[in-house]
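Exercise 7 asks you to align residues with C-alpha cells for two separate proteins.
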Amino acid sequence: MTRDYRALSLWLDGLAGTLTPRPPLPGPIDVDVAVMGAGYTGLWTAYYLKKADPALRIAVLEKEIAGFGASGRNGGWCSSFFAASPGTIAAEFGREAAVAMQRAMFATVDEVGRVVADEGIDARYHKGGALTFATSEAQLSRLHEEIEHEREWGFGEADYVELSADEATRRLRVEGCLGAIFSPHCASVDPARLARGLAETVERLGVTIYERTPVLSFSPHAVTTPAGVATAGVVVDALEGYVATLPGHARDVVPLYSVMIASEPLPASFWDGVGWSGREVFGDERQLIIYCMRTQDDRIALGGRGAPYHFGSRIKDEYDLAPKVFAELHEVMKSLFPTLGSARITHTWGGCLGVPRDWFTSVAYDAGTGMARAGGYVGDGVSTTNLAGRTLAELIAGADHGLAGLPWVGHVSPRWEPEPLRYLGVNLALLAMASADRAEARSGKPSRRADLTARLIGR
C-alpha cells in the first residue's frame, strides 16, 4: 500500500500531480555510481556528476520517494549558515580556511538560484535575505556580540548589517523588536518543489532513480537492497540522519527532530499591518532556535527545535508528531504577531535532521575504496547540500574547481556516546536550552546555563 506522502508536510501537500513512487530496483545492477538517498545531497551529487561526465551510469536508491526526508519537510531557508562556527573551523584549519568556507556558502545561495533558473525548476526561489531579531535585552546583547564577531572575521555591512528597532520594524513588524541583523545571503524556497524538480532534472540527464528501494547495508563498491546488490565503482552515502538506522551506524549522527506549523493563508489586511513585503526569512536570538518564512500563498510557516531525541537513534513516523511542541510554536507565532487573531493552523509536521558529535558538517571521498559521503548539516542543509554535491562531484571526477581544498573536506567527526549516555545527554541539552529561554524571559539577562550546555555538547 502506498502511503500518503502529502501528509508529511505543507510543501508535499502543495505539490501538483501524483506522488506515486517510481519503480523500485528490479534486481542486481552494476553502475558507475550508486547514490543512497534521493534527498538534496544525493540529487545534487548526481546532477553535478552528470554535468561533468554525461556518460556516467548513475543510480539513486531511495527508500520512499524523492524529497521524502528533510528535503521535503524543512523550513525553506536556502541560507549561507554553516553548522560549525568560524572559530571552530579556524582552530583546526586556520583563519583563512574559515573565511573561505563562509565565502563559499555565500556563493552557494546564488548557485542554487542559478540552477533552478537554468533548469526551469519551479522551486519558488526568492532571495530576500534573512533577519535575526532580538526581542529581549538578553537577545539584544547576543545580537551585538554576533555582529562584532562577524566584523572580527572580516565580514562587513555587505554581508551583515545591524538594524535599529525602527529600521527592522520597517522591514517586518515583530512584537517586542529591539533590533535585528540583516544578511542578504539567504533565499527562501519551496523545499518539496526543489527536491522533486531536482529529481526530474537528473532523470532528464539520464540518471535512474529507484524509489521504494531501502538500503539494508553498504560497503565499498556495494549497496545491499531487498532486490539485490547494486555494485558500483563509487558509493555515495547521502542518507543524512537516516544513516543512523543502519547496522553499525547508530552513533554516526544523532537524528534530531525539528517540527513545523503553518497558518492558513492570511488576508491582505494582516500583511498591510506587519509589512514583510521583502519576504525575508527570519529567526531570533533565543537559545532553542526558531525559523520562519512567508510562503508564496501568504501563510506563515514557523519551525523550531524542542522535540525529544529517541533512544537508540530510532526514527519512526509517529515521532514526526509532537503536539506539545506544535502548541508551543503556535504560542510563539501569536506572540510575534498578535494581530493573527483566530487564524487557523492548517498543517503540523516534523522530521529528523543529522547532527554530528562536533556539529561540523563534512564531505569526504576515498578513491581507494570508492566511498563518498556528505552530511551532518544540523538543519542548514538546503544550500549546504548543493555545495556538498558540487564538492563530491569534483572529488569523484578528479576535477579542480577550488572546492576540494575547503576545510570541511575530509573532516571526521567523533562518534556519539553509546546509549544511554546519548539519550540522556541530548535530551538534557534540549531541556537546558528551553529552560534558559524561560529564565531569560523572566530576568532579561543572558543565561549562563545555555553557554555551559553548548560547550558540553560540542556546539
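Second protein for Exercise 7:
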Amino acid sequence: MKDFLTAARLLLLDLASTLFFLVVYLLTHNTILAVGLGVALGLAQIGTQFIRRRPIHAMEWLSLVLIIAAGIATLLTHDPRFVLFKPSVIYAIVGGVMCKPGWLNRYLPDIARTTVPDVATIVGFAWAGLMFLSAAVNAFVALTCDVATWALVMPVFGIVSKVVVFLLGFSAIRLTAGRRIRAMPAAEREALLNSTGWRDHSQPQARSA
C-alpha cells in the first residue's frame, strides 16, 4: 500500500495552501495577508518541484490555479469562503478519477490483484463516493458556517472518514483474499503464492517463528 499512501500524501500537499491560508486567517483575521501567504505557498511548492526537476502533476497545477483564483475572489469580495471552496473542487476531480473501475489495483500487491480484483473495484468505488461526499460536505460547511466552524469540522471529518474507509477497504481486501486462497486446491494455492512472490515474502516470518 506504499503507492496508495504516497497518493494520499500528494492530495494533502495539494490542500496545503488552503490549510495554510486558514491558519493565517484564524490567527490574524487579515484577509490580504492570509491570501498572500497561501498563494506564496502554492508558488513555492511548484517552484520547489522545478528546482528539484521533479515532474509536476496536473493536480498540483490545478491546486495552484485554484488558490490564485480563490485568492483573487476573496480579495475582491472580502469573503474567505472562496478559498474554503477549493477543497471541494479537488475532491470532486479526484472522485471523478476514482470512478474508473480498477484504479485501486495499481496500489495493491500482485496476490491481491490476482485473487480479489472484484473487491478492489468495489473499494475503489467506495473511495470515489467518499471524495464526492467530502466535496459536498465541504461546500455545505463553507457556505453555511463561519471560518472557525469550518476549521473545526472539516479536518475532523476529513481524517475520520478517510481512516474509516481505508481500514474497512483494507480489511475487506485482506480477509477476502485470505479466504479465497485457503479455499484453493493445494497445488493451485502453492502456484499462486510462488508466482506472486508471496511465498518468498512470507518465508522469513516462518523461519523467525
